[in-house]
Description:
Helices cover 37% and strands 21% of the residues of chain A.
Amino acid sequence: MPAPPIVLRPPDARQGPGPMPGALIEAIDPAVNRLVARTLPGGRRATGVGFGTELAQLRPYEPGDDVRHIDAAGSARTGTLHVRVHVPERALTTWLVLDISPSMAFGSSRRLKADVAEGAALVFARLGLRRAGSVGVVAFGGPEGPRVLPPRGSKPGMIALRKLLAQGVVPDGQGASAALGTALSRALRLATRPGLVVVISDFRDQHDWVRRLGALHLRHALIAIEISDPLESELPALGRLAVVDPESGDLVEVNSSNRLLRERFAALERERRAEVAAELRRLGVRHVQLSTDQDWLLELGRRI
Amino acid sequence: MTFADPLWLLALVLLPLAVLVQRWARRRKSTYVVRFPSARTLQEALATASAGRWRRQLPIAALLAALAAMIAGLAHPQVDQRVPIRGASLVLVLDHSGSMASNDVNPTRLVAAEKAANTFIDQLPSSARVGVVAFSTVPDVTQQPVTDHATAREAIDSQQAGGGTDTGPALQLALKMLDATKRDHPPAAIVLLSDGAANLGVDPVTVAAEAKRYGIPIYTVALGTPGGTISAGGPFGEQVAVPPDPQLMDAIARTSGGRAFDAQTADRLSSIYQTLGERLSTTAHKRDITVYAVLLAALLMTLALVSSVRTGARLP
């Protein structure tokens, strides 16, 4: 007998990310800047003319211009003083690669994994929108592939992100496989200018993401935020359980009182997480592990 | 093993039905599930650490086995058992006519017959009653069937060869001793131990037909070899041929529902008596083992109960 299709609503247990004191977010800013400094030349400036390395134009000298920018060759040829004006440094574009797969709607203690992911996304959006930066989002895990919000600055960017986050995660049983890898390659195509890419996921999707993350890392500063729940890695002894994979809808019946099984499960789960950590370390990606049972913002500030 | 009411075994069809119902119930129950993102890892763990899998099936398996045992109990299972016939009576009809003195069987026919009769008595269970009729011209020594085998043995051992062979009346006497005319006489058999032709009195085959009517088989043993002789005792020591009459013995046995044996040697005589001994003293008896089937069912049910308490608890 084929099992009936299982379609579940994600639990209405959204707590939201909780309080996010501005001071704490401020404190994270320098750390992110340090990370990004490797990928962008110089300090980041606002839009408009300014200082940089690329020549925008030569224009006649006006009082108040920096004499150091007087272009010798241009002045000699025209007979009047000319100064070089540069294309300003690009503003930082932050790409959030955000996991909205059904498995994110899970949480056993303070809040859902999706809530923590939401909080982390908001923190990096707020940091990214400073100094004329813009924020783009690649939300993956849905049935029709990654959803993309193009980079937008300031208020529009924040509004778009909040709108996306308000829609919550994908309903159960509609998860796509290899979604993380697909999302990363999409981000690789979209993020043309060097910037910051923040991957927020539970890294449960083991399919072909390491190589693409490495490719992203060549050009961008990368932060990988792994969100987990304590119950995911340790099975409590609750007798016989019928559990369902939120993403695939696969039903598994287990006897959780079986000590051997619990130990084996914990070992496999530890192994999986260690593997993720090892891959990220090998790529040199900043790896932050957030759990649903702790103050995630503090933890984020400490680890980044 | 046989079943007294095998029709009940049809109820075994219920077992696959029970399995189906259980499957269905389990399927229905699975609408209550826990969302668990690590389900895939759990499945892997289940594949590698599947020690608890058989235990999960134990309660239902034990329950089904209990059900099967109960259905088997309803069908009244019986086992065949060989039990001693309580109060079985045997009469050894021993010929001690003159021809039994022939020494064609070592040492003589009579001694061989006595020895074999004793062996036969030895093999009988103590509950069997043994009587003796010794005859020559007339049935002379009689020993009522009693459980004290020693008296029968005494009666056998004290025989001397001499006289004619009057088989018919001896058999009649044996039948009378076995209360053959009573309707519910205990199981009985006659062992006729003779060599030659009946040369006096009632035709033994007629008596055999009578025995058949009463349900008493006569097992016959023809003693001696065709070349057997005895000394006539005259001044010249003439030898008289005393051949056995196996045809007659055969007819007696066949008519009465017994079996005819011909013992050419003392050894064979003894072995014949051994098989006779088993045939006569025990019978196939069907013993009802319903109690054990029910007991087994109860045990299995307890097992199912205990194991389901251990493993069946499940989060709704």
